[in-house]
């Protein structure tokens, strides 16, 4: 069976789709799992041995997108997060069975609409994604290996480092200020080697942190070699500290211990955006709105960094 799994949004969102693709392949190795992704996630999708084919939706001409879907001879699609564009494209491609959450106008273009009420956050995003696979295979085993993506460490250069990824990025709703991060980094340096990582579009942020930490023995790394090489690097760290953005999900995907900061709201909470990795390796903090509570939380985080080392 040729199964299309659609998740065409950002890095972290796409990573929450990977357990679903894995269990579909495990349910029957003869299933051909086809991932439909945004351009930025193509490289990571190709690195997953449980994905057989990758279709990229560049968001441009819908008819060329439909042509790609038709060429794949898809039997059924599972759209984990829908929008009108991907819904119409699948309809025009005449995919026989089209499964998706029952949301907004897009739901009218699917053959199987599943009520999930994700806004209630009764489970994590990746768990909602997994649940959709039951519509196709009611007896499917939703357990998956952890880490889901395992890289052979080629170098031990950064094995004893903890990493700070200070950028906001993605759709993160909460983070510490750069001054607060400076304090946390200096606290970590008392007991550990530290590396700071930055996305390819964060050169200005890198320079800012270099100026702030010019007298400290810190490694600065600008990711310019693609998401897979960045994931391999992250897999070496003993701890990855960041806000709840795509890089956090990447760290959890490759089995790295994480310390992550979330907004103090149900929609943006760790309850919804928990990583796909081992929950025991995830240390999550909700940053409060009030100044006094935020200060208390910051001291707690500082103490937890010290204890973690």
CATH topology of the largest domain: Rossmann fold
Tell me which CATH architecture of the largest domain applies here. Answer: 3-Layer(aba) Sandwich
Structural class: alpha/beta
Beta-strand share of residues: 15-25%
What quaternary form is this? Answer: single chain
Q: Give the terminus-to-terminus CA distance.
A: 48 Å
Instruction: Kindly state the number of beta strands.
Output: 12
Tell me the overall shape: elongated
Number of self-contained structural domains: 2
Helix/strand order: EHHEHEHEHEEHEHEHEHEHEHEH
Helix content: 25-40%
Q: Roughly how many Å is the radius of gyration?
A: 20 Å
CATH class group of the largest domain: Alpha Beta
CATH H-level name of the largest domain... which superfamily? Glycogen Phosphorylase B
Q: Uncertain spans, ≥5 residues at pLDDT below 50?
A: none
How can the largest sheet be summarized? 6 strands, parallel
- Mean pLDDT over the residues: 94
Strand arrangement, major sheet: 3-2-1-4-5-6
Helical stretch tally: 12
Give a structural overview.
Helix 10 links the parallel strand 10 (239-243) and strand 11 (258-263). 36% of the residues lie in helices and 19% in strands. Helix 2 packs parallel to helix 6, helix 4 (62-71) packs across helix 5 and helix 7 packs parallel to helix 12. The chain has twelve helices and twelve strands. Strands 3-2-1-4-5-6 form a six-stranded parallel beta sheet, sandwiched between helices. The protein folds into two domains: 2-136, Rossmann fold; 161-308, Glycogen Phosphorylase B (Rossmann fold, 3-Layer(aba) Sandwich). The chain has helices at residues 11-15, 18-27, 42-46, 62-71, 84-92, 125-136, 178-189, 203-212, 227-234, 246-253, 270-273, 291-308; strands at residues 2-6, 32-37, 53-56, 76-79, 97-101, 112-114, 161-165, 193-198, 218-222, 239-243, 258-263, 282-287. With 309 residues, the chain is an alpha/beta fold. It starts with a strand and ends with a helix.
């Amino acid at each position: 069976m040729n199964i299309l799994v659609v998740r065409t949004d950002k890095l972290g969102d796409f990573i929450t789709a990977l357990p679903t693709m894995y269990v579909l392949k495990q349910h029957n190795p003869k299933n051909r799992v086809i991932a439909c992704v945004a351009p930025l996630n193509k490289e990571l999708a190709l690195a997953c041995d449980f994905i057989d084919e990758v279709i990229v939706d560049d968001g441009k001409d819908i008819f060329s997108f439909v042509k790609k879907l038709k060429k794949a001879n898809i039997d059924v699609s599972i759209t984990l997060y829908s929008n009108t564009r991907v819904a119409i494209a699948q309809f025009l491609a005449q995919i026989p069975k089209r499964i998706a959450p029952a949301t907004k106008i897009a739901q009218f273009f699917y053959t199987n609409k599943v009520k999930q009420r994700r806004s209630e956050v009764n489970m994590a995003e990746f768990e909602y994604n997994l649940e959709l696979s039951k519509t196709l295979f009611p007896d499917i085993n939703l357990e998956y290996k952890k880490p889901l993506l395992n890289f052979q460490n080629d170098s031990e250069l950064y094995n004893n480092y903890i990493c700070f990824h200070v950028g906001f990025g993605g759709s993160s709703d909460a983070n510490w200020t750069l001054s607060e991060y400076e304090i946390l980094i200096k606290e970590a340096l008392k007991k550990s080697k530290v590396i700071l990582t930055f996305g390819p579009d964060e050169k200005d942020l890198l320079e800012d942190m270099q100026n702030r930490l010019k007298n400290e023995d810190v490694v600065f790394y600008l990711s310019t070699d693609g998401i897979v090489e960045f994931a391999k690097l992250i897999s070496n760290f003993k701890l990855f500290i960041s806000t709840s953005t795509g890089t956090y999900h990447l760290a959890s995907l490759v089995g790295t211990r994480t310390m992550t900061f979330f907004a103090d709201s149900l929609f943006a909470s760790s309850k919804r955006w928990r990583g796909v990795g081992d929950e025991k390796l995830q240390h999550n903090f909700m940053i409060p709105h009030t100044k006094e509570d935020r200060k208390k939380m910051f001291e707690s985080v500082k103490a937890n960094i010290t204890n973690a080392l």
